[in-house]
Amino acid sequence: MKKDFFFEVQTQWEKGMFINAKSHVTKIKGKEDIIISAAGEFKGDRDLYNPEELLLSALSSCHMMSYFYVCGQNGIDIQEYKDNAIGILELKDDSSGGFKEVNLNPVITLKNDDQNELALQLHEKAHQLCFIANSVNFEIEIKPVVNGR
What we know:
By secondary structure, the protein is an alpha/beta fold. 25% of the residues lie in helices and 28% in strands. It is built from 2 helices and 9 strands. The longest helix is centred in the middle third of the chain and has 23 residues, at 51-73. The termini are far apart.
């Protein structure tokens, strides 16, 4: 059975609101505001979050949560999870562009190292389930490392 879920954010900008004209506020009901700017490479405020970083964060976080889900289904006890997501954005001559590739590099520590092989294999299933990965049109490569305690 298909089911739709709705998410809503508000983006607000007003002339003179920030020193950097590319800075703005994202509001999500009931949560702290997020101040965002263009990436420093595109004349934004380097001290603020930018959309490119937030997209990488969404991909990394979604993969992790999907991974936790499939590991839970398989009785795998995760002790620690760290990821270093790296994205490659291609800027074209006409100033358009987009991500052409993202690499997720999760390092997972398990309670039992006898589950390492299964834990490695489950990254593929997690990737198939990830809502954000299923919403983008570029390659996502996952290079996991699994260690037991």
